[in-house]
Automatic annotation (TrEMBL):
This is histidine kinase. Coiled coil: none annotated. The keyword Phosphoprotein applies. SMART domains: HATPase_c (SM00387). It comes from Shewanella zhuhaiensis. It is an enzyme of class 2 (transferase). One of its GO terms (cellular component) is membrane. Residues 242-448 form the Histidine kinase domain.
Length: 449
C-alpha cells in the first residue's frame, strides 16, 4: 500500500492502463502522419498512414509486452494447478499490480501445496493404522465389488492374496463354509468358528454410507475370543478374591479355636477329642492350601520377559520330572518370563504323567515358527503323552477355571497355564493325538512380532 502512494498509475486497473497504452501509441502514430503530410504534402498521406500505423502497432506491442508475458505466466501456473502440480510460482514484477497478482497466486499455490501435503500425511497415517489393525475390513462399492481390504482381511480370508476387485459373493465362494453365509448375510452380531480344534468367537458389523454420490458398504470383523476370555478370567478372579477373603476370615478363628480345644482336651484325658481336633486341623489346613491355590491364580503378576535358554530350562525341568526331548532345541533364546514358563511346562508334564501314559512316552518338542499369512513368527512348544486323551466335551472345557476331571483336582492347572501364556500374547491349544494321547501346544510370539 505504501508503494501505491508513489505510483500515479497504481490506482488504475489493468484494463484502464492497457487502454491508455493503446491510446498513447495511436496518438503518437497520428502525430507522425500529421508531421509527414504537413511537410511533404498530401501526396504522402497513404505512406504516412501506413508508417503511422506500423509505428503505433510496434509501440502498442512494446507497451503491452510485459503485461502479456505476465498473463502467460499466470496461465501456465493455473494449468499446473489444474494438473495437481502445486510447485509452480510466478516471478515478481516491477509493476505493482502485476506484482500483487503474482504474490496472491504464489500464496494460493503455497497454501494448496501445504494442504495437499497435510492431507497426504493424514491419509498415509490412516492407511498405516488400518493396514496394521487386527480387525478385518472390507469396503464394497454399489455393485458389490471389493474396492478396499486391509492386510488382516487378505490374510484371514484369502491366504494373503489380493481380493480387491472381487465380488463379495466370489470371495465367499472361495472361503466356503462356515464363513461364507455369515459374510454374505445381512445381520450383525457374534458368531463362532471351529478352527484346529479351538472355538473362536467373532463379531461382524456392517455399515452403509454414501461416498461421491454412490452407496458403499463397510464390513468389519473382529476376533473376540481373547477379549471374551480376558473378561471371563477377570470375573473368575473377582469371585476368587471375594471367596478367599471370606473363607480366610473364617479359617483364622477356626484354627485358634482348635488350638484352644486341644488345651482343654488335655485336661479331660479324652484321646478321642485329640483325634477330632487333629482331623479338623488337617481339613482346615487343606482348605487353606486350596484357597491359596486359587488366590495365586487371582494374583498372577504380569510377566517380566527376558531371554530364556531353552536347553538350560529343559535340563532343569528334567531334574524335577522325566521327559523326552523330541528333535533339536532352538539355539536362539526365547523371550518370556522364565519362572512363569517353567511353572506352565512343569504343570503340563505333571498332567502328562498323571494321564496314565508310560513315562518314556512323555515328550516335549520345541521349534521356531517363521511368520506366515496366518500367524506371526514365534516359538511353538508341544508337550505330548500317550494317555487316553480327552473327549470332545472335556477338550472344549479343559481350559476353563474350576473345571477338572480329577477327583482331587482344583480345576486351576490348565486355566493357570492359559492365563500365563495369554499374558505373553501367546495361545494354548489341546488336541488328541493320532494313535492315542494328548498334545498341548503353546505358541509364544517372537519379540516385536
Amino acid at each position: 500500500m505504501a508503494d501505491d502512494k508513489h505510483e500515479p498509475l497504481a490506482a488504475l486497473g489493468l484494463r484502464a492502463r492497457l487502454l491508455l497504452a493503446i491510446a498513447f501509441s495511436w496518438a503518437l502514430g497520428s502525430a507522425l502522419v500529421w508531421l509527414v503530410v504537413s511537410r511533404f504534402g498530401v501526396d504522402w498521406l497513404m505512406p504516412s498512414l501506413a508508417l503511422g500505423a506500423l509505428v503505433s502497432l510496434m509501440l502498442s506491442a512494446w507497451l503491452t509486452r510485459r503485461l502479456s508475458n505476465a498473463l502467460k505466466s499466470m496461465e501456465l501456473g493455473l494449468l499446473n494447478l489444474i494438473d495437481n502440480d502445486f510447485s509452480a510460482s510466478l516471478p515478481g514484477s516491477d509493476d505493482p499490480v502485476l506484482s500483487k497478482l503474482s504474490s496472491l497466486f504464489n500464496r494460493a499455490s503455497e497454501t494448496l501445496r501445504r494442504e495437499r501435503q497435510h492431507l497426504y500425511q493424514r491419509e498415509l497415517l490412516l492407511d498405516k493404522v488400518i493396514q496394521n489393525s487386527p480387525n478385518l475390513m472390507l469396503l464394497l462399492d454399489s455393485s458389490g465389488h471389493i474396492i478396499y481390504a486391509n492386510d488382516s482381511a487378505r490374510h484371514e480370508l484369502h491366504g494373503g492374496k489380493g481380493i480387491t476387485g472381487m465380488t463379495l459373493t466370489a470371495l465367499a465362494a472361495a472361503i466356503g463354509e462356515p464363513m461364507a453365509p455369515i459374510l454374505t448375510g445381512d445381520t450383525d452380531g457374534l458368531f463362532t468358528l471351529e478352527r484346529e480344534g479351538d472355538s473362536e468367537t467373532w463379531h461382524i458389523s456392517r455399515g452403509r454410507f454414501t461416498l461421491n454420490g454412490f452407496e458403499h458398504q463397510l464390513i468389519l470383523l473382529k476376533q473376540m475370543t481373547r477379549e471374551l476370555s480376558r473378561q471371563e478370567v477377570a470375573v473368575w478372579k473377582k469371585v476368587i478374591r471375594v471367596i478367599s477373603h471370606e473363607l480366610n476370615n473364617s479359617l483364622a478363628p477356626m484354627r485358634s479355636m482348635v488350638n484352644s480345644g486341644r488345651m482343654l482336651a488335655g485336661k479331660l484325658d479324652e484321646p478321642r477329642l485329640n483325634l477330632i481336633f487333629d482331623t479338623i486341623d488337617k481339613r482346615t489346613a487343606h482348605l487353606g492350601e486350596f484357597i491359596e491355590g486359587y488366590a495365586r491364580f487371582a494374583r498372577l503378576p504380569r510377566p517380566i520377559k527376558a531371554p530364556v535358554d531353552m536347553a538350560r530350562l529343559c535340563h532343569e525341568l528334567g531334574l524335577q520330572t522325566p521327559f523326552v526331548v523330541v528333535g533339536e532345541l532352538p539355539t536362539e533364546p526365547l523371550i518370556a518370563d522364565e519362572v512363569q514358563l517353567e511353572q506352565v511346562l512343569l504343570n503340563l508334564l505333571k498332567n502328562a504323567h498323571e494321564s496314565g501314559s508310560a513315562p518314556q512316552e512323555v515328550a516335549m518338542a520345541v521349534r521356531t515358527q517363521p511368520a506366515s499369512a496366518a500367524s506371526p513368527a514365534g516359538v511353538v512348544i508341544e508337550v505330548m503323552d500317550r494317555g487316553p486323551g480327552m473327549s470332545p466335551e472335556v477338550l472344549s472345557q479343559a481350559l476353563l477355571p474350576f473345571y477338572s476331571t480329577k477327583q482331587q483336582g482344583t480345576g486351576l492347572g490348565l486355566a493357570l497355564c492359559r492365563e500365563i501364556i495369554e499374558a505373553h500374547d501367546g495361545r494354548i491349544s489341546l488336541q488328541n493325538r493320532s494313535g492315542g494321547g494328548l498334545a498341548v501346544q503353546l505358541f509364544l510370539p517372537a519379540q516385536g512380532a
